[in-house]
Amino acid sequence: PYELRIEVQPKSHHRAHYETEGSRGAVKASAGGHPVVQLHGYLESEPLTLQLFIGTADDRLLRPHAFYQVHRITGKTVSTTSHETILSNTKVLEIPLLPENNMKAIIDCAGILKLRNSDIELRKGETDIGRKNTRVRLVFRVHIPQP
Questions:
Q1: pLDDT tens digits for 23-62?
Q2: Any residues with CB less than 8 A from the CB of 50 and at least 6 apart, and which?
Q3: pLDDT grade, residue 104 (50/70/90)?
Q4: Which region ranges are annotated with the description Disordered (predicted)?
Q5: Phi, psi at 71, each rounded to 5°
Q6: What is the residue extent of each domain of the chain?
Q7: What is 3-140's CATH number?
Q8: Integer CA distances (angstroms), 29 to 39, 142, 144, in order
Q9: Which residue, of 42, 104, 127, 141, has the greatest Cβ tally within 10 A?
């Protein structure tokens, strides 16, 4: 059986940034460094893609967060390759999981972007109030093709 495990948990607080500010940098791990995610039980030689998005953190069904988005961090200190894409209106960061790295990725390339309330309230059917809903989850998933 496969297991996608967060080996190094992210810090419980991260200051998100608005598009108009400079980036606040990548999400950090509580002991310093960055979160680490590893896929266990995958023995094929094909690389896979880890997807990361920002999800809701309340007790309801997990879904992409309406007010926060993942933001790709680049720069000299970033060691992990990543690629931003949009999947059904949600910004997703795609990170390679490579067999030569034991299917492990250091998540030093992901920041959190806060959308402006005025932009969100224009979206159809968005009922949550952005000012109250400030808790997020980093959501990781990987698609493993079945033979």
A1: 778 999 988 899 999 999 999 999 999 999 999 987 778 8
A2: 4, 37, 39, 94, 95, 96, 97, 105, 140, 141, 142
A3: very high
A4: 9-30
A5: -135, 130
A6: 3-140
A7: 2.60.40.340
A8: 18, 21, 27
A9: 42
